[in-house]
Amino acid sequence: MPLHRHLVKGREFARTAGDHATDMFAPLAVIGRGLRHHAGWAKDRWQATPKERRGPTLFLSAAMLIGIYLLPHGLLFALIALMASAAWAGRAPKAAPAPPAPDVADIKLGALYSALTPYLCGPEDANPLYHFEGSYKKAFGSWEFDAEGRLSRLELSYPAYFTDTEPAARARIEQVVQGKAGRAREYRFDWDEESNRLRITALAPLPTDVVAQRFVAAPGEIVLGFTDEDGTARTIPVAQGGVVTQQPPVVWRTGPRSSEPHLLALGVAGYGTSSLIRSIALQALPYGDLVVIDGAGTGEHACLVNRPGVHTVETSLHGALAALNWAAQETERRLAALNASRHTGASLPEDVTRPLWLLLDHPTELGELARAEGRPDPQDLLELPLRHGRAARVTVVIADDVEARDRITPTVLATTRARVLLGPAGSEEGRAALGAPLDIVPAAHAPVGRGYARIGNGAPVRLQVPATVDPLDDEAPAQLRDAVIALLPHRDSRTEAAPAAPPRPDRPPVVRADGTAPSHHQVDLGKAEPMIRSRPIS
User: Fold this and answer.
1) Quick one: which of 381, 261, 396 has its CA closest to 319?
2) Strand duo 263-267 + 394-401: pairing
3) Residue 292 backbone dihedrals phi, psi, to 5 degrees
4) How far is CA 267 from CA 132, 226, 323, 431, in A?
5) H helix or E strand, kind and range, residue 340
6) Distance between CA 114 and CA 226 in Å, rounded?
7) Distance between CA atoms of 336 and 334, rounded to whole angstroms?
8) CA atoms 261, 266, 272, 278: torsion sign
9) Are strands 197-203 and 221-226 parallel, antiparallel or unpaired?
10) Could you tell me the pTM of the whole model?
């Protein structure tokens, strides 16, 4: 007889013997469970009995046992009663073990695999990597879940015929993955086109409790916000929640040696483009002069009115055109003064080297009003500051709605190489606003100030703008308003008189190429008191 038949008969004999032994010793098992139940009950009662009553309890128990012993056949009757009671107490079968909890990976990864199958399955593929009866373990290489059971990292393979070079095909896969993994988080998608692999990483939320403050930065460096640790090579100390922490900043370098001297910020309505303008203004005020154009006319920048270093804050079309016309002539004047100083070998005057910032909030709204009135678009007056602003120390910052991108002039789009996009935007909007494909899928609901930044030819990084609210907004938290007021040159010009300042000329000096100054200035803002004046030279 073959060996395997002996083994089969041996297993059957052992199984039969075990079944018979179970049937034979079943009454003993029932009585044993009952005795354990009685022992546990007696132990609980003894522990629940107060210490002062344990002595009498022992005495009564011993007396009862002696009485049973003295009765005729007392021990036999007691044993029979104990066995019957134990059999009754142990009659319930042992509770079946609870079924094992379902594996989170099997449920979530299986659902993700099924959702990706229609997009990655080829009808003519003889050995498909994705098919409706397949397993996710064949396509998914590695994965991780966080403590809450949410997918935090995944690496998957896709067939070679998938069109991974087309943005639309990528967007479909990214949308499916985000829908199955959770739309409340941001995900970075790393497409490895050479090996046909996709790496998905869930990004941790950026801090939203960083308020406006003095950041550790050199003159000419603007902290746009904060990003991930791998998005920059430096960290700065930041007051956050009452303590000082180290946060990685997104730094925009301006000045004559900057390759990205101008900034364009686009955003979804309500996601903090005006807050970004205020944050930049507060950081630029200690080192330069400001001209602010509020195209929306909502008074978001009224806190800067009459502040030292702020030439003007304009909300009307007439005032914006006059201010930008002055800025264009001021740029020309600075270029002439710089050329004259270089030819003569003289030192540069302070009114030429001091940075001038042109901050425009929603200028496209003024452009529509200008076209309706037959007047020039304010963006057309920015051509000279944009093209020659780096040499003249003139920096232009433009913030507008992402839907108004088509109304921004080509000159602005070509010269603003520092880009910011705020709010949840699609892949097409991200590519159009940042000038590069965005490998991060935004969350469905993002906090105010959350977006992305791209400086020059660098890769887009996540961005969280510091909370810089309007200090004149009564609905804003008092703590945030006080943080902004503390950064202004005066606490509040509406309740506290500004300190006495030395007399200053009504108009900035203009230097011609031959080194002579004209007797009069050609710019007239048409106001009783000139609102655009140069900062006094101390």
Assistant:
1) 381
2) parallel
3) -110, 130
4) 41, 17, 25, 13
5) helix 317-344
6) 37
7) 5
8) positive
9) unpaired
10) 0.73
